[in-house]
Design a protein that fits this description.
mainly alpha, elongated, Plg-R(KT), transmembrane helix, membrane, Plasminogen receptor with a C-terminal lysine
């Protein structure tokens, strides 16, 4: 009788462990999907912000280029056009970020760093441990009572 009861309990335990494993896997998949969705939304916001900024900066750049050109012609001094050089670099960067391939190049470089230079990614003093966090928490806690 005890053997049958024990066998039944083992089967129940095994079924419960499988259910817990499946539940934790499903939870992890949902977390990964959520993190990926958040990353995609943040990237989309960054691109949209860049495109919106480009509209304003492009207008400013165009007006500045016209004004500086007119000023250079009027004063007969080509040095007045000098501010167009840095402004054009900023404009080109923003355009590349909003409509070009800058994000793909950044992604490729990030993948290269992950593959070939992973030592650069290690935090100073190595990864945080629970013990280190507890030590910091205790030192900062006003209500911690030593035992």
């Amino acid at each position: 009788m005890g053997f049958i009861f024990s066998k039944s309990m083992n089967e129940n335990l095994r079924a419960q462990q499988e259910f817990m494993l499946m539940s934790s896997r499903l939870q992890l998949e949902r977390q990964l999907l959520m993190q990926n969705q958040m990353r995609e939304r943040q990237t989309a916001m960054q691109i949209a912000w860049t495109r919106e900024f480009l509209k304003y900066f492009g207008t400013f750049f165009g007006l500045a280029a016209i004004g500086l050109t007119a000023g250079a012609i009027k004063k007969k001094n080509p040095g007045v056009l000098l501010p167009i050089v840095p402004l054009s670099f900023i404009f080109a960067y923003q355009y590349d970020m909003g409509y070009g391939t800058l994000l793909q190049r950044i992604k490729g470089e990030a993948e290269n760093i992950l593959d070939t230079q992973s030592a650069l990614l290690e935090p100073p003093k190595g990864p945080l441990t629970f013990e280190e966090l507890e030590k910091i928490r205790r030192s900062q806690s006003k209500f911690f009572i030593e035992k």
